[in-house]
Amino acid sequence: MDKKAKKKIIRDKLSLFRGQILSDSTEIESILGWKLRTYFFPKTNRRATLFSSLIIDKLTFDEKISLYEHTHIYNKSEKHENIKRSLRFIQRLRNAIAHGWLLEGASDENEMVIKNPNSYKTLKLDDRLMNEFREHDKFLLKVFGWEQTLKEKYGL
């Protein structure tokens, strides 16, 4: 395979992985926002809508996770520690993918190397990491009660 074809395969695979991570993490962030909204306002009404649009929708993913950790929804049980771990994993991977640069010379068809422009840390994006991401995504969809989405995405 020539260099140009190899480069295209790497870029195409990175685009596929990046798209899945960004799309799925946005979905998880939205679900977390909904969980927070229904925690503070269990019934949908004008106040709930205002709270969601003026407060929850303005928070970053990190702030939503932190707020989740400070509510009574979150406790120190193993289940909630696993939720926190999965949320933080997805958040960190999303940020690395969204802001990282591809190091073409260090990458190949099986492993793309991404460099953070701020910290200069590198991340190796491969099938193993994507499978780990999917496991966290499945876990969060299940524990947050998004069974239909879980079935549609993963056939579970």
Give the structure's gist in a few sentences.
The protein is mainly alpha-helical. It has one domain.
Fold and architecture overview:
There is one protein chain. The protein is mainly α. The protein has one domain (3-154). The protein has 6 helices and 3 strands; from the N terminus they run H-H-H-H-E-E-E-H-H. It has helices at 3-40, 46-54, 61-69, 78-99, 127-143, 147-154; strands spanning 101-102, 111-115, 122-126. The protein has a 3-stranded antiparallel beta sheet. A hairpin with a 6-residue loop joins strand 2 and strand 3. Helix 4 (78-99) packs across helix 5 (127-143). The longest helix has 38 residues, at 3-40. The mean pLDDT is 92.
User: What summary fits the major beta sheet?
Assistant: 3 strands, antiparallel
- The topology string of helices and strands comes to HHHHEEEHH
Give the class from helix and strand content and strand pairing: mainly alpha
Report the principal-axis shape: elongated
Q: State the distance separating the first and last CA atoms.
A: 38 Å
Relative helix content: 55-70%
The helix count comes to 6
Query: Averaging pLDDT over every residue, what do you get?
Result: 92
How many β strands by DSSP? 3
What's the arrangement of strands in the largest beta sheet? 1-2-3
Strand content: 5-15%
Query: How many domains make up the coordinates?
Result: 1
Uncertain regions: pLDDT < 50 for 5+ in a row? Answer: none
**Radius of gyration, taken over Cα atoms and rounded to an integer in Å:** 18 Å
